[in-house]
């Protein structure tokens, strides 16, 4: 049955999600901050700023009125991670508490060191909140190529409602109640992807990249467990699946950022040329705050934080990692 899907945020991923839902026969209303994006979507049926070259389905309309986009059967919040709290504060004044909201951002709140669901609950405690995450590239999803995603919610009825509403021929959601693990996996994998890119930029080889991704996955699991999540969640789409995609392809903003950083460019140079947010830069800092608070050892994540802070030479940071004391693999 056709429903109305509200999408808050009209970047590449928000636009790709709009495409999937319009293909499913739903009416889609997208909120965008930029008037030129709204105009392009409505007049040209294309998001020329964030997803150029993809003709949008006719069932998609754009607005600058967030209240209009929130008047829907399901709302997908696709703002950058650091804007989630503010967006929920606005939505809390305009939405029924019977409408599920899926957070589609990946990150940790820098100012507080909290998970996005925690920030959302503080800003709008009455809203039904879930996480939608997984290994996806916006350009592929927008073109209708197949993918799998994770929907995580404390209330399984909320997760199942989102699953049943959003599922399509090429868009396959799986549900879990591990809200913590789903968020840690989707956030920290961006940091490991930067580290992976740095190794490629420094031409340190495929063996090093494989070792780094594996040990990065161990860090994700340690932090997840410390926060009450399940270690096995890291073996799913929102953990290993997302890491495999993000840490090995130049389509990934975080991996490509790491490659350029490893090649010797500065953080300011790289980010200054980008329209879209590279979440792993902020997440590296936020994750270390969280890790220290819970006494979790995350050497790769901390190394990335030091690299993006720019106060040390990258080769010195890599050498320090390689000189760490040896340990058992399962810890």
Describe it for me?
The structure is a single chain. The chain is of the alpha/beta class and 331 residues long. It has two domains: 4-177, NAD(P)-binding Rossmann-like Domain (Rossmann fold); 180-322, N-(1-d-carboxylethyl)-l-norvaline Dehydrogenase, domain 2 (Orthogonal Bundle). 50% of the residues lie in helices and 12% in strands. An eight-stranded mixed sheet has the order 3-2-1-4-5-6-7-8, sandwiched between helices. The longest helix is centred in the middle third of the chain and has 23 residues, at 179-201.
Task: Give a quick rundown of the structure.
With 331 residues, this protein is α/β, with parallel strands linked by helices. The protein is built from 15 helices and eight strands.
The total domain count is 2
The major pleated sheet works out as: 8 strands, mixed
**CATH architecture label of the largest domain:** 3-Layer(aba) Sandwich
Please write the CATH class name of the largest domain: Alpha Beta
Q: Strands of the biggest beta sheet: in what spatial order?
A: 3-2-1-4-5-6-7-8
**Strand-residue fraction?**
5-15%
- Secondary-structure content class: alpha/beta
């Amino acid at each position: 049955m056709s429903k109305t899907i509200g999408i808050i945020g009209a970047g590449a991923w928000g636009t790709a999600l709009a495409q999937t839902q319009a293909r499913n026969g739903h009416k889609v209303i997208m909120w965008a901050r930029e008037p030129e994006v709204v105009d392009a979507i409505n007049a040209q049926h294309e998001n020329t700023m964030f997803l150029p070259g993809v003709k949008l389905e006719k069932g998609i309309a754009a607005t600058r009125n967030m209240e209009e986009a929130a008047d829907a059967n399901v709302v997908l919040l696709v703002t950058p991670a650091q804007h989630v709290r503010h967006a929920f504060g606005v939505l809390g004044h305009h939405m029924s508490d019977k409408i599920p909201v899926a957070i589609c951002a990946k990150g940790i709140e820098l100012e507080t060191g909290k998970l996005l669901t925690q920030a959302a609950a503080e800003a709008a405690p009455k809203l039904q909140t879930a996480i939608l995450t997984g290994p996806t590239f916006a350009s592929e999803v927008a073109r209708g190529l197949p993918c799998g995603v994770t929907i995580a919610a404390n209330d399984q009825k909320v997760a199942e409602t989102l699953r049943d509403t959003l599922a399509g021929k090429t868009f396959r959601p799986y549900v879990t109640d591990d809200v913590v693990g789903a968020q840690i996996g989707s956030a920290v994998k961006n940091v490991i992807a930067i580290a992976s890119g740095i190794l490629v930029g420094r031409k340190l080889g495929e063996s090093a990249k494989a070792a780094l991704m594996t040990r990065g996955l161990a860090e994700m699991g340690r932090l997840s467990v410390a926060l009450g999540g399940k270690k096995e969640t890291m073996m799913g789409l929102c953990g290993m699946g997302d890491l495999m995609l993000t840490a090995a392809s130049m389509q990934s903003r975080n991996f490509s950022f790491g490659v350029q950083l490893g090649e010797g460019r500065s953080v300011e140079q790289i980010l200054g040329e980008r329209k879209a947010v590279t979440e792993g830069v902020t997440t590296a800092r936020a994750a270390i705050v969280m890790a220290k608070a819970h006494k979790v050892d995350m050497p790769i994540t901390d190394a990335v934080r030091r690299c993006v802070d720019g106060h040390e030479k990258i080769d010195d940071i890599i050498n320090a990692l390689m000189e760490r004391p040896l340990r058992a693999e399962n810890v």
